Amino acid sequence: MAIPNHIGVIVDGNRRWAKERGLPAFEGHRRGFARVKDLIGWVKKRGIAVLTIFVFSTENWNRPKKEVASLMKLLALGINDFKKNIKKLNEDGISVKIIGLRDKLPSFLKKATKDIEGLTKNNEKMTLNIALSYGGRAEITEAFKNIIKKKIPADKITEDVISQNLWTSDLDLMIRTGKEQRISNFLIWQSAYSELYFYPKYWPDFTEKDLDEALADYSERKRKFGR
Asked: How many domains does the structure of the chain reveal?
């Protein structure tokens, strides 16, 4: 089986999963985050080098304030749980990186993200990108700001230069759960030639078997890159 180097997952459907079961939205998010931790182990076991998980978008700031506040606390709890298990992360060689616009994050979450990045920065077997307050257009905007700061002449700005100023590398496979079939501003530069896999289950119901089905489907596709 051909194993992708970099997969991105849009973990969609937490709120709808909860609503259909008569549960509060927070419970859907809580179950979804628990499943994220499972996914990390599944991906590591299969030898995938980079995993990017879309957990909170720039557009999600427009959700009700109470829900956003609950999500921020849940994300901080989750990242701090990584810190409690730092020995395992380091043994597995997993480097955790937060990609997104951090300025809007509450101070307690900024601290949690900074801590986990520092504690895992020397790990090289696998990279876990957590896309938090993330938007693909925002990422490209920030890349151009960096290019301008570096005073790179216009005639020297190439696709490679832009890629080098983005937050992560090109994507091989994008998986989206939750029945929607769009990429929702996720890794829009990096996904130019990625394979797209839309799964009808809500994220809390996603299983290891479902991941294997996505990888098997990816393995059967022929990636021509326009050739």
From this structure: 1
The DSSP bridge partners found for residue 131 are 54, 99
In a domain, 68, yes or no: yes
**Could you report the per-residue pLDDT of 5-48, keeping only the tens digit for each?**
999 999 999 999 999 999 999 999 999 999 999 999 999 999 99
- Domain interval for residue 15: 6-135+170-218
For residue 95, list its beta bridge partners: 127
| Token pair 């459907």: residue | 13
| Residue 122 known to be catalytic | no
Candidates 12, 129, 165, 172; catalytic one: 12
Active site residue 92: no
Which residue is catalytic, options 5, 14, 60, 217?
60
For residue 219, give both structure tokens.
Answer: 């393995």
- CATH number for the domain that contains residue 22: 3.40.1180.10
